[in-house]
Amino acid sequence: MGSPLLEVTELRTYFRTDGGLARAVDGVSFHVHQGEVLGIVGESGSGKSVTSLSIMRLIPRPPGEIVAGSSIRLKGEELVDAPEKRMREIRGNDVAMIFQEPMTSLNPVFPVGEQIAETVRLHRRVGKEAARARAIELLGLVGLPDPEERVDTYPHELSGGQRQRVMIAMALSCEPDLLIADEPTTALDVTIQAQILELLAELRRRLGMAIVLITHDLGVVAEVCDRVVVMYAGQVREQGPVEAIFRDPRDPYTQGLLASIPRLGRRMELLTVIPGTVPNPVRWPGGCRFHTRCPHAWELCRREAPPLFRAGTGDVVAQASGAGTSAPTHDVRCWLETHPERRASP
Amino acid sequence: MGNYLLRRILGAIPLVVGVATLIFFVLNLAPGDPAAMYSNPNLPVAVIEQLRRNLGLDQPIYIRYFKWLGSFFTGHFGYSFAQGRPVLDILLEALPATLILAFWALIVVFVLGVAIGIYQAVRQYSVADGVLSVSSLFFYSMPSFWLGLMLMLLFSLKWHEWGLPFALPATGMTGVDYDYLSFGHKLLDRAAHLVLPVTTLSLVLAAGIARYTRGQMLEVIRQDYIRTARAKGLPERTVILKHALRNSMIPVITLFGLYLPLLFSGAVFVEVIFSWPGMGRVIVDAILQRDYPVVMATSFLFALMTVFGNLIADVLYAVADPRIRYD
Ligand SMILES: Nc1ncnc2c1ncn2[C@@H]1O[C@H](COP(=O)(O)OP(=O)(O)OP(=O)(O)O)[C@@H](O)[C@H]1O
Ligand SMILES: [Mg+2]
Questions:
Q1: What pTM was estimated for this model as a whole?
Q2: I need a labelling partner for A187 at 20 to 30 A (CA). Which of A234, B8, B259, B264 fits?
Q3: Which residues of chain B neighbour A167 with C-beta distances below 8 Å?
Q4: What are the structural domains, with CATH classification, of chain B?
Q5: Do residues A237 and A30 lie in contact, with contact meaning Cβ atoms separated by under 8 Å?
Q6: Cα of A52 from ligand 2 centre, angstroms
Q7: Digit-coded pLDDT (tens) for A113-140
Q8: Residues B286/B34, Cβ–Cβ less than 8 Å
Q9: Predicted complex ipTM
C-alpha cells in the first residue's frame, strides 16, 4: 500500500476552559491511505470534530492548542508546525472539509456559485469566467438539477440536501486528496442521508480521493467505509477493517455502540444503549477511561490505563507503527486483550 | 426594486400628511399669541387686530390649516412672521451649511465606527479592545454640547494660549479673511472650520456604531460559514473583510437611514455652540420669536427626514440581505 496519505501520531489538542484544561483529543494516532474511506465513530463529545479541525489546523486559538509532540503528516509533510501561509495552500486544495450543518455552513449573502468559484480562483489561477464554468460543472457533478440556473441562487433558496451537495461541490472544487466529512448527513432526513452517502461513495470511486467520514452512526460506517476508528474520551479505543470490527468487536465500548444500531426487523425497544454519558474532558477517569461505564471493569481497569493491543495477540502496539504495513491491523485499547478469561463474566 | 421603492414612497405620503397635521395643531393650539410678540403692548387694540389680520391669525383654525397644507403645493411654506419673507427662502439659505455638517459627520460616524468595531472584534479581549470599549462608552454617554465646549476649550482656546501651531477655529464656517484667500487656502480654511463641529457631532454617534459593529462582528465570526471560509484556505483578511463584514453590516447599514434625523437634530446643538450658520440658528431664533410658520416648516423638515431615513433603512436592508424579498 505504500506510505499513507495522512498519518496522525499522538495528536493532543487541549482547550483552556474556565473549569480547567480540557484534554479533548489526548494521544490519537491513525492513518489514511490514498483513496481509502476511513470512518471515525464515537459518541458525542469523544473528540471527533476536534480531531478533524486539528488536521485542518482550524482549532480556535485561544482557547485551543495542538500540544507539542503531536504529529500530523500529509504526504509526509508535517502540518502541526507548518506556517499559516502553507496551511492556507493546503486547505481547500489538498484537504477539504464539509460540515454537519448544511443550513448554516454556507454564507447567506453570496450566491452558491460564487462561493464555489471563490475556492477555485483562490487555488487555481483562473479567471472569473473559467471559475464560474467550473462551479456549474461541479454543481452538475454533485447532482444538483439545472446547474446553470442554480449557480446564481442563494443558499436560502435551496433545501438542506441541496445545500449539502453545494458544500460537497465546494469541497471537491480543487480535487483534494483528502475529504474530511464531519457528520455530513446527521442534520438531514433519512432518504436524503442515503442519497448524500451514495453521492460521496460514487465521487470517491470516480475521483479516487480518500475520505475521513465522521459519524456516530455505525450503520453508515458499515455501508461506505473501508476501515474504522472508534474514539472515546479523546482516545482511540479500537481500530481496524470494517468487516473485522463488525465480525469481532473486541472492545466493550465498540460492542456497546454496535448493540445500539437499530436494525430493520428488530423491535426498537430491544435497543441497548451504553449506560451513562461521556465524562468531562477536564477530568477523564483514571485508569481505563471507559471503566466508569464498562460492564467488565475490574480492579486493573480502575488502576491502570490500558495501552493499544494488537487484537487477539496480547501484543502491545508500538505507537505510530502499523501505518506502513501492507495488511491493515486491528487494534484494541482494553485489558481484556491480556485477560481473555474475564470476557465471559460481564 | 423600482416598483418596491415607488410603493414605499406612496405609502409614506399619508404618514407625512399626518405628521404635518399634528405639527400644525400642536403648535397652533399652544398658548401664547405670536401677534403679541411683534407689537408693543401699549398699542391700541385696533392696531394689534390689524397686525393679526396681516399675519392671517384672525382666521378660524381650519382655514389656516388648509392654507398651510396648501402652502406645500405653492412651495414656500408661507411667510415668516419675523422676517416677512417666504419661509422657503429662509430654509434654503440655512440648509446647505447644515447639510455640509451632517454629511461629513455621517461619513465620519460610519467609517470610524465600523472600522473601530471591526478592529475590536478581531482583537477581542486585547488591551486595545478594552481601551476602545471604555472610550466609546465614555463618548457614548457624554452630552454633545459639553463635548463640544470641551473640544473648543482644548483645541482652540488653550491650544492658542499654549502657543501650539494649528489651533482650530471654533466659530463659523469660514475665517474673517476668507474672501482674500487663494482657492487652495479657502478649502483649507473651510476644512479647518469643519473639524471641531464634525468631531463633536460624530464622536457620540460613532461610539454607538463601534459598539454595535463590534457586537455584530463577534456574533458573525463564530458562525459556521466563517469556519467554512477558513476551511477553503482563504486568508484571514478575506474571511473578515468579505465573509464576516458583509453579514455583520446588514443590521448596521439600516442605522445609516435611522441616523439621518439624529444627525440633523444633533446638528442643531452643535451649530449653536459653534455659531454655525445653519438650521440650528434658524430653529432657535424662530422658537424664541414664536415665528410659527418657520417652526412648523422646520419641524416638518425633521419629520420628513425621519420618514426618508426609515425608507433608506428599509431599502438598504433589502439590498444588503438577499433573504429579504421586495414583495
Ligand atoms: N472551542 C472549544 N473550547 C472548549 N472546549 C471545546 C472546544 N471545542 C471542543 N471542545 C471540547 O472538546 C470535546 C470534544 O468535542 P468534539 O466536538 O470533538 O466532539 P465530537 O466527538 O465531535 O462530538 P459530536 O458527535 O457531538 O460532534 C468536548 O468535550 C468539547 O467540550
Ligand atoms: Mg462533532
A1: 0.83
A2: A234
A3: 228
A4: 20-73 (no CATH), 93-320 (1.10.3720.10)
A5: no
A6: 9
A7: 999 999 999 999 899 999 999 999 999 9
A8: no
A9: 0.88
